[in-house]
Amino acid sequence: MNRYSWLLILAACGYAVYTSVATEHWTNAAIIGVLGVGLAWWVSPLRRPSGITNTTSHREAQQMSDQSVVVYWRPGCGFCSRLRSTLGKQADQAKWINIWEDKEAAAFVRSVNDGNEVVPTVVMDGIPVTNPNPKVVLDKLNA
User: Fold this and answer.
1) How many distinct structural domains can be found in the chain?
2) Greater confidence, 62 or 120?
3) Per residue in 106-119, pLDDT tens?
4) Are residues 73 and 38 in the same domain?
5) What is residue 134's three-state secondary structure?
6) How confident is the model at residue 101 (pLDDT cuts 50, 70, 90)?
7) Quick one: three-class SS letters along 74-119?
8) Range of 105's domain?
9) Are strands 121-124 and 95-98 parallel, antiparallel or unpaired?
10) Is the pLDDT of residue 3 over 70?
11) Distance between alpha carbon 129 and the CA centroid of its chain, in Å?
């Protein structure tokens, strides 16, 4: 999904709601409307996974020591949410960079992923790893 998917979702659900209302299927319209808004919010760049407060920029991350863990993520990414939930309280020890808010971060992720914005891309010991096993990241944070 790209950063504008939420607009497409809202437009499609809006049309479905309009069609349901026009045919007097009020319950369907309500259900589609609520689910559509919820899904659009889920993939929206405004949504930040719960608990991610330790954000930084790519430029700041470049100046950190190689001992820190830096996670490049984007809203709506299921793999990023899985990583965050697996890390639990240790997630606050990592630095989180939203590639949709930081163009340099997006360029970095593309540079290490054959031109693709694959997330999560995690930098541990100065080495970028694409979609690592959350247990490996957790072990690094606990070390």
Assistant:
1) 2
2) 120
3) 999 999 999 999 99
4) no
5) helix
6) confident
7) CCCCHHHHHHHHHHHHHHHHCEEEECCCCHHHHHHHHHHCCCCCCC
8) 58-142
9) unpaired
10) no
11) 16
Q: What is residue 88's predicted lDDT score, i.e. its pLDDT? A: 86
Instruction: Provide CB contacts within 8 A for 43, sequence distance 6+.
Output: 1, 5, 6, 9, 75, 76
Residues 63 and 128 in one domain: yes
Percent of the chain residues topping a pLDDT of 70:
87
Are 82 and 15 in the same domain? no
What are the start-end ranges of the H helices in 23-75?
26-43, 58-62
| Alpha-carbon gap, residue 99 to 104, rounded angstroms | 8
Distance in angstroms (rounded) separating the CA atoms of residues 81 and 74: 9
Per-residue pLDDT at 22 exceeds 80:
yes
Cα–Cα dist 20/22, whole Å? 5
Tell whether 68 and 37 lie within a shared domain. no
Look up the pTM and report it.
0.66
Output the CA torsion 33→38→41→42 (10° steps): -140
Encoded tokens for 115: 């031109």
